[in-house]
Design brief:
mainly alpha; globular
Length: 150
C-alpha cells in the first residue's frame, strides 16, 4: 500500500485533487464533490490533532473496529459504499475551491509528520504507528478520488 509519506505518492495525490472540479459526479455514494473534499479532511484532522470525535463507540463497536483495523492500511482496496461514521458525514455543501484548498493544506501538514513518534489515538481503532497512519490516509484519499474518477 502506498503512503502519504512517500514524496511521489504525496505529489500524485495532490495532482489528482487539483484535477477535480465542481462538476465532477461520483461513480458511487451520496456525497457530491464538495462534500467529499470536506469529508476527506476529517481523518487527516484526527491525525493532525485538530479534531476529536463526538461519537463514542460502545463495547460491540470497539470489538468490530479492532477486528477491522488492519483493513485500514493493508493492500486491499476498500469497496464502494462502505458506511461512514457519524463524525465524518457531511450533510451541507461547502464551497468547492475553499474545501479543495483546505484538503491540500491538511495533506501537506500531515506529510510533514513523517518522523512523528507521538500520534493521537484514533477514536475507534486505537494506536497506529507512522507507517500505518501514512498508508491509511493514502488509502482513504485514494478511495474517494477513485469515487470521483480521478
Amino acid at each position: 500500500m502506498q503512503t502519504l509519506f512517500d514524496t511521489k505518492t504525496h505529489q500524485e495525490v495532490l495532482q489528482r485533487i487539483k484535477t477535480l472540479n465542481p462538476n465532477h459526479q461520483p461513480l458511487w455514494g451520496k456525497m457530491d464533490v464538495n462534500q467529499m473534499l470536506n469529508h476527506c479532511q476529517r481523518p487527516l484532522e484526527i491525525a493532525n490533532g485538530r479534531l476529536t470525535f463526538t461519537e463514542k463507540p460502545g463495547f460491540v463497536k470497539k470489538i468490530l473496529f479492532k477486528l477491522y483495523k488492519t483493513h485500514m492500511y493493508n493492500d486491499k482496496l476498500w469497496k464502494p459504499n462502505i458506511p461512514t461514521v457519524k463524525d465524518f458525514r457531511v450533510e451541507e455543501a461547502k464551497p468547492f475551491a475553499e474545501e479543495q484548498q483546505k484538503l491540500i493544506e491538511a495533506i501537506n501538514e500531515f506529510n510533514k509528520k513523517d518522523l512523528n513518534l507521538h500520534w493521537p489515538k484514533h477514536p475507534f481503532f486505537g494506536e497506529f504507528n507512522t507507517e500505518q497512519w501514512g498508508k491509511m490516509q493514502y488509502k482513504h484519499l485514494d478511495h474517494h478520488l477513485r469515487q470521483f474518477g480521478v
